[in-house]
UniProtKB/TrEMBL annotation:
UniProt xrefs under CDD domains: MopB_CT_ydeP, MopB_ydeP
Keyword match Hydrolase: no
The Molybdopterin oxidoreductase domain, residue ranges: 122-499
Cofactor requirements of the protein: [4Fe-4S] cluster; Mo-bis(molybdopterin guanine dinucleotide)
Protein name per its UniProtKB record: CbbBc protein
GO molecular function: 4 iron, 4 sulfur cluster binding; formate dehydrogenase (NAD+) activity; molybdenum ion binding
One Gene Ontology CC term in the entry: membrane
The organism of origin for this protein: Acinetobacter sichuanensis
Amino acid sequence: MQHDEQISESTKVRVYSKIEPYHHAAGGWGALLSVARNLKKQAVVTRGAITLLNANQPTGFDCPGCAWPEQKHTHTFNFCENGAKAIAFEATSKRVDAQFFAGHSVSWLKQQSDYFLESQGRLTEPMYYDAKTDHYVPISWDAAFELVAKKLNALAHPDQATFYTSGRTSNEAAFLYQLFVRSFGTNNFPDCSNMCHEATSVGLGDTIGLGKGTVTLEDFEHTDAIFIFGQNPGTNHPRMLSTLSAAYKRGVNIISINPLKERGLQRFQDPQNKLEMITNGSTPISRNYFQPKIGGDYAVLVGMFKHLYEWDQEAKKSGQATIFDEAFIVQNTAYFDDILQEVAATAWQDIHAHTGLTEPELLQLAQMFKDAKRVIFCWGMGMTQHRHGVANIHMLSNLLLSRGHIGRQGAGACPVRGHSNVQGDRTMGINEHPSDALLDRLEQVFATPFPRKHGLGVVESIKAMAEKRIKVFFAMGGNFSEATPDTHYTYYALKQCELTAHVATKLNRSHLTCGQEALILPCLGRTELDLQVHGQQSISVEDSMSNVHLSAGRNEPASEMLLSEPDIVARLAEKVLANSSIKWRWYIESYDRIRDAIAEVFDDFKDFNQRVYQPGGFHLEHPANIHHWRTQTGKAQFMITPLKAVYEDTEHQFSAQYQQQKVYTLMTMRSHDQYNTTLYGLDDRYRGVFGLRRVLFMNELDIAEAGLVADQYVDIESIFSDGVKRIVHQFRIVSYDIPRGCLGAYYPETNPLVALSSHDQRAKIPASKNIPVILHPTSAPTDSTNLEPAALES
Ligand SMILES: Nc1nc2c(c(=O)[nH]1)N[C@H]1C(S)=C(S)[C@@H](COP(=O)(O)OP(=O)(O)OC[C@H]3O[C@@H](n4cnc5c(=O)[nH]c(N)nc54)[C@H](O)[C@@H]3O)O[C@H]1N2
Ligand SMILES: Nc1nc2c(c(=O)[nH]1)N[C@H]1C(S)=C(S)[C@@H](COP(=O)(O)OP(=O)(O)OC[C@H]3O[C@@H](n4cnc5c(=O)[nH]c(N)nc54)[C@H](O)[C@@H]3O)O[C@H]1N2
Ligand SMILES: [Mo]
């Protein structure tokens, strides 16, 4: 343990940093205290508290925190610590206005930390970057839209522009946005899902015909076993812990598979449970906890399957009931024999070499899977952000299908999404690979031709910008420059653009790493009143379990000059597409009109308005649950990648010159006080880190073996075979319960280490959970909080 006290230059606040293990349950009084502190910090004590009471209520707004569904039929409050932070951050009384920009040049702002930038408050009016003075200056909305229109219409081809979406965007805004972008003439739709659950969308699309989860909250009330792979709900989906703790109390076997022993997966004190709070009691979450190596899950899943296979062989020989659900398999699936052959041919030795578990542990896992009649698999970024992200999802799906766990009550697939409407944005057609069916329908409804050529996602857009094939970058939300891999290259790419424009609520670094010209277009947040010609408007969102419901903010907007996201799209479309037959602004008078158009395009959304105004909205049924498989074969498909190919691919990505050195695998993840690139604070309470972010979690034996000591500082260098030097500086070593050879650190500070080329081949999701690195001892920084920007421009 070590305490440091420093004055952080950029924020001029006294910051203490310390490493001190946290022994309490997740949630509980610690969470309530943190809510109060955050409301105070954002100076929103009364308004914030009222705002919170409206979160996730039938008549309130959808919490912008995460995509975990709301508990229905509850009259108590329905928010969590980290949802409260997200809300307080949006409802802040601080402002970033014209005066702020007049006082700070872009060069000065660039030197400040991401924490500083987002802490300055809400953006209030459209701003234009004036390169001559290096300042953002006010611009009217009309002039801003005209500038974008001029730049877009001057392009040789619409494919020279790219349109990013972050997952907070509502269904209504997303639908109009894709309609506008396609009317303009391109399918270039980089999306935050490209860095998030894209492997899930692709993987489940292959196997069960639609890349979404199959379970609802009700299934958690009927299940026997819940396996949680690579997900940290205590921080990222705290409301999920209430569901898990209820399941635990029913005797459900909850099993976590995670290289780190996450606090929230061990014990939880439910702030909504009066008895637990008063008695300071808590409920365990996981009955069993397995710590594979980073990236070891693929071998774990293949190993589980191989055990099932061998037991099935034995059962058949002795005339007992089969282990696999043969009736289900015969009726519903294709390629089962192929994968049996592959599993049979995979040597145990190779499996055990990669799991990071002991042989008895793997056996126990397989046994628990076999013994449960109803199994739910939950997973997060620990499964998707790998070079073999899609292969991971195929294996999860193989196991579920092999025992008939799809379409059975209390069983199924539960990918836990991140952004509160990331799933809905995809449903609304934000997709660089649109299906012909979608384009046909859009053409039919809007009587306009739409481009058929598939577009670019995140990784490909960055490359295209760097190579000047793309000249205009437009973002609907998010923080592209920090969320994406290979930070220096991405900065370079954005700078090559003729125009970068961001629709945003808060200032972030993407607004500063701009093209020759740049715009900030400030919009309303979820918590704010959206008044249009027909009165107050609601938007709709789709949560992680395919429930679609309305959201309406009540707070007075942060500034009179803000526009809603749908309004921004409509006004922009009107300027860009002079001859469009679509009445863009008409849709904005009442969002019911947008929803009527959505209903015409998507069969699932028939009678959208009528259904969405019902309390709680409606549920989109996954066709797999009625054994309707939208795959090529019309069946659910078993799919497998040879184990050797998976692990050789990972190993071959790094440079041979380092084979002699100790190479570690680094995962990048979230601290408790951040929302993606937005930092609410500098603590990671459950992991015992306070007041600093540049930390490196490392196994104590590895620390000793490398001749290092805890609290010492190191530089981290990644070693991809392209020979580019990628290094981040001065990370403090924290001795931690993490498997040997594995390291953990926070994103976005570590994004400069991820080579743009290191991604899953099909989903193109950056492998930000699997970075080969070496360590260099270094001196301690002068500012112990190490709050400098993630990557200083060189
Ligand atoms: N408060 C808060 N809430 C959020 C977010 C936030 O930043 N803050 N972000 C939102 C978004 S967009 C998303 S996508 C979700 C993200 O939520 P999560 O999916 O929980 O994301 P991470 O924090 O990146 O890491 C997940 C876990 O993966 C584990 N892990 C890493 N590598 C491996 C591996 O190889 N195998 C296994 N089995 N586990 C591994 C890590 O130890 C960690 O516990 O949360 C959403 N909710
Ligand atoms: N190394 C590494 N990289 C990662 C990840 C990782 O685990 N490791 N995770 C990846 C994942 S899962 C994701 S989803 C991405 C996240 O990538 P993004 O979605 O691009 O990033 P965020 O940090 O969520 O975006 C924050 C910004 O959104 C804006 N914003 C907030 N609310 C609103 C709103 O209502 N409307 C609009 N228009 N703007 C708003 C604010 O200006 C704020 O600064 O990062 C990915 N990058
Ligand atoms: Mo995400």
